[in-house]
Amino acid sequence: MSLRQMEYFLAVVEESSFTRAADALHVTQPALSHQVKALERSVGGALLERLPRGVRLTPMGRAFLPHAQLAVRSARQAERAARAAAGVAGGELHIATVHAVAVGLLPGIAARWRALHPGVSLVMREYGSTDELEEQLERGVADLAVGPEPAEWMGPLLRIGREELVIVVPFDDPLAGRGAVRLAELADRDWIRCAMEPLVDGVLVLDRACGAVGFTPRTVLRTEHTSTAVRMAAAGVGVVMAPAHMVRGAVGEDCVLLTLDPPWHRSLAVFSRVPLTGAAEAFAELFGGRAATAAATAGPAASARPD
Description:
- This protein is of the alpha/beta class.
- It contains 11 helices and 14 strands.
- The strands form 4 sheets. Strands 3, 4, 5, 6, 7, 12, 13 and 14 form an 8-stranded mixed sheet that branches. A two-stranded antiparallel ribbon has the order 1-2.
């Protein structure tokens, strides 16, 4: 079994066709078929069912697929890491993050990176939740992740600061003239919720916090992206809790931000499966000027919480 055979197998799966996969790989179809058959012989059974029009995975193929994807991704990541160890003169750096951080924090960092390292392009992958972010990084989709600090992470991790969670209301809201609000004052409000909301002990953080002050938030709209939720709040659909940096990045001055009393913060971190070197280390240093080559987790990290 070889890495090339797994790459060929994945191409056939992605294209659902030997012909299209061969075109994408710039190889002949007989050569592609030969390599896939050799792979099937090495694993002891058919991975693909050949159909009159296209192919589909066999049960053995479905079991094999995620492991082949991880192997190919890990090999590509190893190649990038090896090249990056020699410096940051060229190549690509793959970054995984969550939507709120991509919108609110990373534009400025990416601009600084382009000014300092124009030869290294950035490939960014955005996810809707912290769970998905951590899962995809474990699968090797990126060289590093930037997002809320994981509760448990066994690889290198660099804390880069904290983000403040605020309440967003439109300009004509009765609370718009105030700088801060207690959560209990929002008991009779309609709430907008989004997929980015973190869990604490299996309970959504807003449900947990509101329950602690005596009410259950009345949810009127759920969205996939925090920026959509913020725009809905600015339009008067309801109130939403969101990171302050993301709100400014998403809608600018079109709404009012209210600090929670007491304030709510969440730790942010850069983390990876392997020690950060070369381009990955240089990118991490943009957040605070500290190297992140061997910083392991120091125990469970707090989720969003009041100070």
